[in-house]
Write a structure and sequence with these properties.
Layout lengths: L2 H18 L3 H12 L2 E4 L2 E4 L23 H7 L6 H4 L14 H11 L5 H17 L1 H6 L9 H18 L8 H12 L5 H22 L3
Antiparallel strand pairs: 1-2
Length: 218
């Protein structure tokens, strides 16, 4: 057979194969998209049909009967006996892919502050500071209704963040740490509602007061 004919046939077969194969990039995008809609129960995927639930829904009691919620989280919420060593893993739940349960875990992490100590305090401060910085709009939206989270809770979150800043502030040259942090938060909230901006302004104000108190002892 003529080599030119063979060459043309090979090109044709390759073209057909490329048309029928799925793009690896598209497949990865599909997996990522699906992953955001599922959580795991007993290592089995469960569709998060509630992922669009509004953050203003603060009926936290409904999570107590949800088998996707960890026992330690339920114990903290119910004010049962619980240990700090068992609570460290909850900090990652602030950014769980299951957006339906995020507000509940935010509530639980807020409650852990009253008992925080030692290594847990360090982890709480580090993760708390990072969470507010990377999820500013979500953070302030939790305070849309005082039925969900109060001004006292807002102060608790200032205290949580100060756990980290008190560790990284070593001298007077660190005095701009808070202002730099606040600047980032404000930029993250440019498209927030007026009420959310008001919450952030209050948060920043309390943070400055706590920071200035700390500077007096550095």
């Amino acid at each position: 057979m003529n080599w030119k004919i063979i060459f043309i046939m090979l090109i044709g077969l390759t073209a057909c194969k490329n048309k029928t194969e799925k793009s690896p990039i598209k497949e990865v995008e599909k997996i990522i998209s699906l992953d955001s809609l599922y959580s795991e129960v007993n290592n089995k995927p469960v569709l998060n049909t509630e992922s669009t639930t509004k953050i203003t829904d603060c009926n936290f009691d409904k999570f107590i009967s949800d088998n996707r919620i960890s026992k330690i989280a339920k114990d903290i919420y119910l004010d049962n006996n619980w240990k700090l060593d068992n609570a460290m893993g909850l900090l990652d739940s602030l950014t769980t892919k299951n957006k339906y349960s995020r507000p509940f875990y935010f509530k639980v992490v807020t409650l852990t502050y009253q008992k925080s100590d030692g290594a847990f305090s360090e982890g709480l401060g580090y993760e708390g500071k990072k969470y507010v910085k990377n999820n500013t709009k979500e953070f302030v939206s939790y305070f849309n209704s005082e039925k969900c989270f109060t001004e006292d809770d807002l102060t608790i979150w200032v205290n949580i963040i100060m756990l980290e800043f008190s560790l990284i502030a070593n001298n007077e040259f660190d005095k701009n740490l808070i202002e730099n942090y606040i600047e980032i938060l404000n930029k993250n909230c440019l498209d927030c509602t007026e009420n959310q901006k008001k919450t952030l302004k209050k948060f920043n104000s309390i943070l400055r007061v706590k920071w200035n108190e700390l500077l007096k002892h550095i």
